[in-house]
């Protein structure tokens, strides 16, 4: 895959072949992620986890992935715990952390922060989410989940629903899916539709996504329904959030229109957009999706740090 010592800031940093290689290695990592096998192939390596924005799944799955492979973790969970609170620049913080570890995983509220970090770090940087920008490792685990359920990524009919404007997961995912010839339907209120520059990029890559505000127009043909929450924290004006909050809710009634093998995915956390009753259906795949973050991130750490499963 030729990812040794490489940054992963955007899904656009990876080729289709590299993505497929990571997914193949992720499959090999599943029994290690489950603890059924053990291999300390990253013994002696140190991961620097810098999470300057709230996270449960991404942070814990990176830690779990590292520890499963014998890699130690140093961790910062808030800016207030660093000298940034004293006025230190992000660039200086990155230079210092870079001296203490072999790889930096950064989540930051500002778009572009991970690219900046990669500029000032000698060691590799993985973007764990930068504001409303991108989230490449989430995309990799999403692709792995789709392939696991469907057997192939080629030509899937994917419906993305919810906050497509501020949702960094769908920006990265839509980018990647175009490599596999996906048909994309973008379901959102007009105020939360996919940004024009992202749509233009998709069209340049040969994908012509369909935009609609009506989920019922798209669900019957979907292979994958990818739901995102409407993110209160991204809205500059609370009144604008209140206008769109609760626009879509997936429940068993609406799923009656879906194909029997359609899967429902969500990057989580959910705050009401998927009813708990859906959890018990064959459609629900979001908790497996969350687990898949461990083998996928194990594969990525191994690829970047040079660990090999023999």
CATH architecture designation of the largest domain: 3-Layer(aba) Sandwich
How would you sum up the global shape?
A: globular
Tally of domains: 2
Which structural category do the helix and sheet elements fall into?
alpha/beta
As laid out across the biggest beta sheet, the strand order is 7-6-5-8-9
Low-confidence stretches: none
What is the helix content?
A: 25-40%
| Average pLDDT | 91
Number of strands: 9
Can you tell me about this structure?
This protein is an alpha/beta fold and 310 residues long. It folds into two domains: 136 residues, Aspartate/ornithine carbamoyltransferase (Rossmann fold); 155 residues, Aspartate/ornithine carbamoyltransferase (Rossmann fold). The chain has eleven helices and nine strands. It has a five-stranded parallel beta sheet with strand order 7-6-5-8-9, covered by helices on one side. Helix 2 links the parallel strand 1 and strand 2. Helix 2 packs across helix 11 and helix 5 crosses helix 6. It is globular and about 55 Å long. The two termini are 16 Å apart. The mean pLDDT is 91.
